[in-house]
């Protein structure tokens, strides 16, 4: 088993614990999308799909990964703010009662 497969498996288990009430398919898609962004070092969907295709042993096509991530993004039932609020205490407990702001810097 490749290191990326092991990482996906372990991260998927954490996603299941953090978002236990989320549908299992959505949990798996969320875990896959986050891992893809981390491995690709960017959030461009095509690149994320290419990296997942290259790094995981799953024989899915690039287009399949891309459609799966797109369906997750398009899902109106997925509340980003609520997901962030549940994720934050697990990753940065110091920030649990504080406001965190994500800043994207587009400079080269």
Helix percentage: 55-70%
Give the N-terminus to C-terminus distance in angstroms: 36 Å
Backbone CA Rg = 15 Å
Proportion in β-strands:
under 5%
Report on the biggest sheet.
none
Mean pLDDT: 89
Let me know the number of strands.
0
Specify the structural class: mainly alpha
- Order of helical and strand elements: HHHHH
Q: Could you say which overall geometry the principal axes of the C-alpha atoms support?
A: globular
Low-confidence stretches: none
Query: Number of helical segments?
Result: 5
Summarize the structure in short.
This protein has about 110 residues and is mostly helical.
Question: How would you explain this protein's 3D organization?
Answer:
This protein has 108 residues and is mainly α. It is 64% helix and 0% strand. The chain is built from five helices and no strands. Helix 1 crosses helix 2. The protein starts with a helix and ends in a 17-residue tail after the last helix. 15% of the residues are buried.
């Amino acid at each position: 088993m490749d290191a990326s497969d092991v990482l996906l498996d372990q991260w998927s288990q954490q996603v299941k614990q953090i978002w236990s009430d989320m549908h299992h398919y959505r949990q798996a898609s969320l875990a896959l999308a986050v891992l893809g962004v981390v491995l690709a070092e960017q959030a461009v969907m095509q690149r994320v799909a290419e990296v997942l295709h290259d790094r995981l042993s799953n024989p899915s096509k690039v287009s399949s990964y891309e459609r799966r991530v797109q369906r997750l993004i398009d899902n109106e039932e997925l509340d980003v703010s609520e997901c962030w609020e549940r994720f934050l205490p697990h990753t940065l407990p110091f920030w649990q009662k504080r406001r965190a702001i994500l800043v994207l810097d587009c400079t080269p």
